[in-house]
Amino acid sequence: MSDEFEDTVTVKFPLKLLRVCAPGQQIIEKKRVVNGITWWIQYYPCGQTENEKENISVFFHITGGPAIMTRYCGIHIDGILIQKVSTKDYEESGSWGIGKWLTHDQCRAADEKDGYVEFVFNVKFTRPKILPKKVSGSEHSSVKDSLKFEILEYQLDNNAVSEFDSTVKQAVKGSDKHSWRLFYFPAGDSSRSKDHISLFVEASTTEKKTVILHGAIKIGDITKHGRVFEKHFKMIVEADSECAFPKLISHKELRQIGGVVDEKVSITVEGTFTTYDNLELD
């Protein structure tokens, strides 16, 4: 398998959908598989939310990582392919989207044939940086922080798939270079993770040296009821990094292990951000 590979899907979009769709109405394209990675497009002709109703929202989904994915969202205007580009590193799977990719006026100005315009979605995959089993080198500094949030039991059964919330992006305690936040989906981030809690850890740094985040995801308040679930992870932190857990824990398992207390789920993510000098990855 090549270190780099790509795939493209062209969507013929009927302009009439700009008139008839309501915010939140979505179209999910067929899943595509390339070199063991599955990816697909989900888009909202009139935005995902009321605030985006004069725009087209588009989301990319990926499973089968790890992979570094570069996404190109394009449309032809006067024969020129106009694209928006972004790149993200996925450990296993994840999602990324633009709430206001294309305004309706821009869409109507695109090259049209028989009431249709073409969206061109291209993805390029690169093998990711694999975290080492051993890390050697002189430790420069280490800071610890934690983020906590709660999910109501009601949300497990009544939230829509892909409905999410997040903690506020904040600076890591003791650091003027690192920041992080959490995105969580009580009912799963997509259809593949329905009936699960999905969690995405987003971290960034302006540090030029190598930074590794060692983290632990913990469910339950140990001071009141004891810890019922714990999952460890590690990730390299760069300018824009993410670690995805689309199926962190199923609703069934969560209830079986006593993770719902007083009609809510308490989740804490503890992290240690370590900066290394002269790091060698074995």
UniProtKB/TrEMBL annotation:
Residues 174-270 form the MATH domain. The lineage of its organism: Eukaryota, Metazoa, Ecdysozoa, Nematoda, Chromadorea. This is MATH domain-containing protein. It holds the Pfam family MATH_2. It comes from Panagrellus redivivus.
